[in-house]
Structure formats: C-alpha cells, structure tokens
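task queued by scheduler; priority normal; single chain, no ligands, no partner chains; default sampling; output format set to structure tokens
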Amino acid sequence: MTAQRSSRARSAKPGTRLAAGGRPGKEETSTRDPAARLVPGQPDVTGSLPVRAAALTAAWGPTTARMLLGLVLGWFGYHELVQPALWTGYVPLIHPQSAIAIVLVLAHGWLLLMLAVALVAGIMARAAAAVAAVLLLEIVISLTVTAGLSDLTLRDVGVLGLAIILAGPSKQRLTLTR
C-alpha cells in the first residue's frame, strides 16, 4: 500500500498533491504554488511587497477614502449642530445674527451629518458622495466669492475632489447593496 501511494504521488502533476486518502482523480492544489492561490478577479498577493501594497491599496483605497470623507463631513456637521452661532458668518447674503442664518446652519449641519452616516455605513455611498460634492462645490464657490482663495477654501477644494472621485464608479468594500 505504501509503494502504491508513493507511485501515485510521483505521477501527480507538479504543484499538486493527492487529496486525503490518496484517491486518484481528486487532487488538491498545493499552497506552495503561488499561481494556484490566485482567484479570478482578486488581486495578486503573491508578489513582492510593493505589488502586495499596490493590490491592497487598490482593493481598500476607495473604502478608506469614503470613510475618511464621512469622518470629515460628520465632524463639521456635528460642530454646526452644537454651536451654530459660530458658523452663521459663512451663510452668504444673510446677516450672521439673524434667526434665518441659524436655521440654515442647523439644516446644513443635519445634511452633513446624514451624508456622513451614509458614507461611513456604505448606504447609497455613490449618491451620498455626489450630494456631498454638490454641497462642497457650493461651499467652495461661496467662500471664494466672499473671501477669495484662502487656506480654508483650498482645504474644501481637496475635500470636494475626494467627493467627486467617490461619486464615480469604483469597487468599494463594506457597502450595503441589493
């Protein structure tokens, strides 16, 4: 019986081994063969460190960016809800001490917070990113018209760019889909 197993093992294709019990016709792929671990549609994680890092970034980059955009929007939305009087100066064409300015800041804060929750939770992530892009475009235009280019405006341009990229088609992980 031992001679029979060893002869079958020698006749097996390189990179494969016989299944448990040594039954012919049922072969397992060896974990030593890097190409055997590749799954169609999945990144190649068998290469060098830069190749693996690139594959990891490609797989998780959009998801990380979505979560970070949600964190930024949530941060500002929370602060607009907690202290709206500090933000009324950014409402264009309305006196900062008016009740209308406070209501608009509160509504803006709620919208930011809802977009943040949708982005972090992965609920309609592309639609939430698109709405965030429109909202951020309005903020950038308003800041540019009222105060010109500043560090504040350019920060929002960067966040706008992130929202635009996330609104486009991308393979994201940790999203709720049908």
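post-processing summary
- The CA atoms of residues 132 and 163 lie 6 Å apart.
- The radius of gyration is 27 Å.
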